[in-house]
Fold each of these.
Amino acid sequence: MQTASDRGRRNRFDDSEALRALLNRLHEAGREAWQRDPEAAALMEHAANKYAALARKHGLDPWEAASAAFEAMRGAATRRADDPWAVVTRAVQVTCTAEERGNGLLCSVHQARRPKYSVFHDPERFSDRENPLPDYHPAFSFDPFTDPDDDQDDERPVHEPAMNVTAAIDDTIAFLSWVGWEPSTARAAVEYITTRLAESVTRASAFEVLRRDRQARALLDLPGRSWTALLQIVLGNPDPTLAHTNTGRGLLVRLLIGQPLRALLTDDDLVIAAGLAAPLLTGGEES
C-alpha cells in the first residue's frame, strides 16, 4: 500500500522544477552523489516506474529505460531545459527505439541510431521461407518468354537460367557505383527499395509507395530528383504503355531475366540517367 510520503515523493519528482533542483544539487555534489544520495536512488526508481510501459512496448526491461533516463539526467542540456522531464522522456524514447532496432538488426545500439543501418529490415533466415522470392512474389512474376505481347528484345537465350535476387541486387548496386553513386548510399537505397518491393503486390504499387516516402529520402539523405530518378532506374517507369520495354522493366528486372551487367553498362540512356541522378551531381536540390 502506498503511503502519503511515497505519494508526496512521487508528486515532487513529477514536477519539472523540483527535478531541475535535484539534478543541479547532484551535479554540484559530484559524481559520487548519484551512488550515495538516497534522493538519487528514489529518483531512479521513479524513472523505472514512469517508463516501464514504454520499455515493455519495445521489449525491454524497465531498468533499461531507467538507465537511458539516468544518462539524460546527467546532461547539462536537461538541467537547462524549459521542461527537464520532456528532454528525459524524448531521450528514453529514442534509446528504447534504438535498443529494439539493435536487437532486431543484431548490431550495436550506436549503429542502430544511424540511418545507414536503421533503414534495413531485421535479418531473415533463408530457411524461414520454403521458396526463393522470385518463385512466389508477384513483383517478379513477369516472364518475357511466356508473355505473347513481349517485344522479345531480351539478350539472353531461352536456356540460360535467370539470375537470383541477391546477385541482381548486388549488380544493381555495382552499376550505380560505377556511374557515380557513392557505394554505401547506393547499397542503402537499393536494399531499402527491394525491401519495400517485397512487401508490395506489384512493382507499380511499390513505386508509388516509395515515391511518396519522405522518411526514406530523409534517412538516405537524397534530394527529391535523385530519389524519383533512382526509383525509375531500379524499378522501371510505371507507365503501362512502357511495361514491355527496357525503360518499363527497370534495372532490377532486366538483371533478373538474364541481361548481363556488361550489356547494361553499354546502354547509354540508362548510364546517363543513372549518372545524372547521382546525389553529388544534382547539387543537393530538393523537390
Amino acid sequence: MGKSETIKSGKVIAPLDQATRRAVRMESVSKATNVTFTLELPVRRFIDAQAKAAGMNLTHYMQKLVEDHVINAAPEDDALALRLAAKRNVIGYAVTLAGEMDAAGKFDEHFILNVVKEAAEDPEFAAQYALALGGKDAIGTRPAERARISLNQQIGRLVKKAVGARSKRTDKGKIARAQVQGTLISTYTLLEKAA
C-alpha cells in the first residue's frame, strides 16, 4: 500500500491526488492556527461597527488588530513584524488602487486580476509583496506558498468589498472563478455589481 492510500472499514481507498493532499494539508494548517474566544455582546457589536466602518468583515478586522499589535510591539528589526507590515502595505495599496480604478470606470468581471496586475507594475508593491511572503529567499518554499495563497485571498476579498462588488455566480449557482498564469495570482473570483 502506498503512502497516500487509506484503509477505511477494511477497504483500501484509492490514493489521493496531489491537489487533494495539498487541500487536506492546508486545512490542517489553517485549523492549527485558529483562535476561538468569546466576546461580550456589547464588545462584539462595537468591533463589528468598527469593522464595517473600515470596510472589512469582523474576521479580517480582528486579524488586522492583532497583526497591528505585533507590528507596534515588536522590536524595530523583528522579521515577523516586518513581514506583517509589508502584508498590511500590500493589502492597503491594493484596496486603494481598487477604489481608484473603480472610480475611473475600470470595473469588469476580471477586476481582482486587473488590480493585482496593475499593482505588480509598481516596484515598491512588488518588493513589499515579496517581503510579505517572507522575503526573496523564501519565494518558492512551502511557507511562502501558504503565505501567498492567504495574502491573495485577502486581497481578493478586500478588493471586492472596497468597490461594493459581489461574487459572480455560474448557471448552477456556484461562485465563478478564473485561472491565469504568469501573474501574482493564479485563481481569482469573477465579480459583478448589483444592477
Amino acid sequence: MQQSDINEQPVDKLDAPLLCPVGEPACSYLPELDRLRAEVGALLALARTDELTGLYNYRHFTQAMEMEMERTRRSGKPMCLIMFDLDHFKIFNDRWGHEFGNSTLVHTARLLMGTIRRLDIACRYGGEEFAIILPDTPLRAGIMLANRLREKIANSPLSPGGHEVSITASFGVDVYHPESRDDVSQFLQRTDSWLFEAKVRGRNMVCHSAVESESGVSQDERDLLLKSDSASD
C-alpha cells in the first residue's frame, strides 16, 4: 500500500547525492551518513503513517488539511472531504476479537487505496474512522467516489472462522470552496455532521451538503447524486 508524498513537503533533501563533509574524494564517512539518512527517512515515515493500515495518520492529516485549504484559496478550485467509519465496529470486535477487528481495518484501507487517485490523501482518522482529502474536486465527484467506496466495502465480506461477515460504512461528504472562511476544525465538524446524519438515518449510506450549491450540475446528475442519501445494500 503506497501513498504519494503530500506534495511539496519541505523535508530535508534526503534524496540529494551524499558528499564527503570534509571534501575528501574517498570518504570513510559516507556509509555511515547513508545509514543515518535512511534512519531519518524511516522515522519521518513513521511520524506521519498509521502503523496498522499504512495510511497517513491524524497528525499528517491535519497538516495536509491546512495545506490543501490554502491551495484551494489560491487556485480557485474546490476541495472535497470524505469522512467515514465502519458500522457497528464494536460488535465485530466483541464477537470476533480484536485481531479480526484489525484485519477489517487493513481490509478497508486496501479497498480505500484501490478507489482513490494518486493525488488524494487517505488517512486513518482514529479508531474505525477514516478521512479522504480530495484536492481539485467538486462536491458531485466526491459523492460519487464515496458511493463507489461504500459499495466496494458492502460487497467485500470477510470470513473469520469460516463465517462470512459483511461490513458496511457510513459516509459524510462536504466541499471547501475558495471563498470559504472556515478553519480546519470548522470544516471537519461540518463534514463529520454529515457522517453522523448517515448513521442516524440507518447507516450504509452517503450524506452530504446540498448539491444545488454547485453550478454546472444537470438535473439528471443531481437526481443521481441525491439518491445516495437513501442508498442501502
